[in-house]
Amino acid sequence: GTSITAVFAEDGKLSGRACNTYMTRYSRDEGSISIEPPAASKMMCPDEKEMKQEQGYLLMLPKAASASIDGEKMELRMADGALIAAFVAAPPAKD
Known about the structure:
This protein is mainly beta. The protein is built from one helix and eight strands, in the order βββββαβββ. The protein has one helix at 48-60, and strands spanning 7-8, 13-17, 21-29, 32-35, 39-40, 66-70, 73-77, 83-88. The strands form two sheets. Strands 1, 2, 3, 4 and 5 form a five-stranded antiparallel beta sheet that branches. Strand 3 (21-29) and strand 4 (32-35) form a beta hairpin. The protein is globular, with a radius of gyration of 13 Å.
């Protein structure tokens, strides 16, 4: 039930928000991806379940080995194929 965002910038920066903001660096080559351990702010989440989900996501990010994009969807997977996260592109921001 929690929404986690991820912005993969062309310069290799990855940032986003769960209940805290996080940032890290990544590199991508064809279908493979390497993500450094992220740094995150340390605010308390409104609920413990959300906090555990965020912590799990941040711990799993550096284990990503592949990234696939299909239309508006992106998946990060471990080397064994286990899904880490699935993202859907957000619509462009309105000015």
